[in-house]
Amino acid sequence: MPAYRVALLAFPNIRSFDVSVITEVWGADRTDRGVPAFELRRCAADRSPVAMPGGLSLAPDRTLSWLDRADLVVVPGIVDPRQPTPPAVLDALRRAHARGVPVAALCAGAFVLAEAGLLDGRRAITHWSLTDLLQRQHPCVTVVPDALFIEATADAPDGPPPAPGAGAGSGLGRGALWTSAGTAAGIDLCLHLVRRQHGAETAATIARSMVTAPFRTGTQAQFIERPTPAEDRGADALASVREYALRHLHEPLPVTALAARAGMSARSFARHFTATTGTTPARWLLDQRLAAAQKYLERTDLPMPEVARRTGFGSEVTMRQHFAARLATSPRDYRAAFSARIQA
Fold it and tell me: pTM for this structure?
């Protein structure tokens, strides 16, 4: 099977942290651990070194024409969103998107996609401190106020917007556009893109090698106020409860029972949990059950009712409903998609 080709777009003003994240996710060879082969190329207008903050520089190994061969284009965050992007870079992005290549931008890289006109009439996210600036500079973009990452779907006025970060692990989709919040959220988006294209197990393997959380959904808040001392004291109890829940996903796990394990009232537990994780206990638990179900569907031939039982959905019908609502696919279609890729 040919390597999955990822183009890292390099130009003056990009952030070294985001370049490192992209390189760590797609630039390391982990085929001995079952991860697909990736071909990551640093693409720029020419082969001259690209200066980055902190006295660093990036050596391009391909020109912008390589985007014609890419399966995915990733734009690092930029240092100054007021600085114009080189026209050749914008043209290359437009051509790639017109050909149907998925494009993702980390942090303030959303400004580059907006400058290229790719986000007009679409939803997007950037670092929380830059959302107002993005909206002012690009009024045709609908800036989502608070999310970790989001697919830049069309901003249709009729009907509710899709959940940020929603989408199945059945491929990125032709011409898909993604944006993320700042810094660590770029890691979350990169792992989400891997999960979408290559499955939950591949994303988890890469996350383990990076010693980072394997699964944070795009719906989590990107900015959490500093916990109070009382919340700091409760952090260990909450971590213990989350660990317990992951070991007992097959059980009902109502919030009242989890709160009791933490020695808190249900209301206090929910408040502390959200302040610590950026999401509610119920949403967090659903996310973990979906992730566990995806792994069972990728790894095993277990019947659907058994997958539903082991992951706490109780029935195949309930599991199917949650897959449809959160992942826009069915468990059977998810399994079929990844079985086809493994056989290929």
Answer: 0.78
Q: What is the pLDDT of residues 41-75, one digit of tens each?
A: 999 999 999 999 989 999 999 999 999 999 999 99
d(CA 62, CA 60): 6
Rounded to the nearest 5°, which phi and psi values hold at 197? -85, -35
Mean residue pLDDT of the chain comes to 88
- Report the C-alpha gap between 215 and 192 in whole angstroms: 8
Q: Which amino acid is at 21?
A: V
**How confident is the model over 118-159, as pLDDT tens digits?**
999 999 999 999 999 999 999 999 999 888 899 987 754 433
Residue 190 half-sphere exposure toward CB, CA atoms < 13 A: 31
Instruction: State the helix-helix crossing angle for 200-210 and 16-26, rounded to 10 degrees.
Output: 120
Cα–Cα distance measured from residue 48 to residue 183, given in angstroms and rounded to the nearest whole number: 26
Phi and psi dihedrals of 93, rounded to 5? -65, -45
171 and 93 Cβ atoms separated by less than 8 Å: no
